[in-house]
Amino acid sequence: MSVAAVRTVTLTVNGTERTARTEVRTLLSDFLRNALGLTGTHVGCEEGICGSCTVLLEGVPVRACLMLAVQAEGARVETVEGLAQNGELTGLQSAMRDEHGLQCGFCTPGILMSLTAAEREGLSEEETTGQVLAGHRCRCTGYAGIRAAVARRRKESEATP
Amino acid sequence: MGQGPGQAGPADTRERCRPVKPPVFEYMAPRTVEETVRVLGAAETAGGAVPLAGGQSLMPLLNRRRVRPSLLVDLNRVADLDTLIVGERTVRIGALTRLRTLEAHGPLRTALPVLHDTVRLVAHPQVRSRATLGGSLCHADPAAELPTLALALGARLRLASAGGARTETADEFFAAGGTSRLPGELLTEVEFPVPEGFRFHFEEIPRHAHGGFPLVGVCVGVRRDAAGTVTHARIAAAGAADHPLRLTEAERALTGRQLGAPDGVARDVLDAATAQASPPSDLHGSGAFRTALLRTALRRAVTTLNGQETA
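The joint structure predicted for all components is written out below.
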């Protein structure tokens, strides 16, 4: 079988087209971090449990550790680096800071990506703090701060849509 | 996790700190079913071709190097596998259809509400976004929801290979550990009969509030006559054996009964279920504990069905 084990991958990350050569076995999470220098995507368990590496693929939250970089060829990927614009935090990021939704911050990038997608999809608060947050392991906060951030963000966005 | 020189600890520490990355393999992403089965068939004779669907079970195995394929055949660009047809008598779902798609599909929810409800029990949204029906069935984890659902609903699985195609019932597909899929074969489509006059319910006892395989799950379907007597029953369980388990004895015991028999569910129905079960023991619970949970889940499922009108 004459298949090269190295490929060139081109994808759009946070609105910018990026290209890099990579082994076919490279995980998307490692590709983002090592080939593209986007170390905001954190790598925890690498078996899909912890959620630290969650990114948005075509707007949908996925585990970057459970995908190969070559599978993202031609795709639109969003990482935590794409959230704040010109140094200004998104409403969710501000709410996480104001409500102490993080301590060590390791899980935070993944959580922010999932919550961003949930907000765009208009999921209910119950769905967000239940189903969505269940896909993330936070060993610091006990989730109280994160839930408070979700609630605060919801209240603020209702006040100023 | 870095393990630089000079950091080497005792052997067990080294084992735990081993890099969590896939082994070296070749990679192909065919566009059609024909091309896929040709590649799978050709590579199978050489050994070691593995199809990659949503990757939510296979990628962790690759990362841990529990699976070392020579060739990874990525199905994610085969559009013909991503289909969903809701007919009057059957629902046909392409093997690559993602759980997120199933969850959001209105006509499917109307035709097979239990499939919608059960998909919502699987893992969490960040996994359902990639996970596929076919991947879950082929991985055939004994504690997973969808193989159990396929058994209870009497699904039929379409397998293609370079030599042709064949259809297996879920009973045949999950008869023992693993599946009856042969090397070089590709699961292309799953057909669920729309069970006329039945009501189904999937009840599970999870390890956490959401996500992860349950400790035990049970899917119960009943058809009742006008007097409320069960004329047909379908029961399957997850986490009750080393493979997804159809509980035929409990089906027989439930048939001819009223669901709301004096103390909820007749004891012999529960006894029939546990007699057929041989749940494993692991760090999350002993086999005896899981057996008790199976009885609880079955009782809850039947109680839920009893609270619903006959279809």
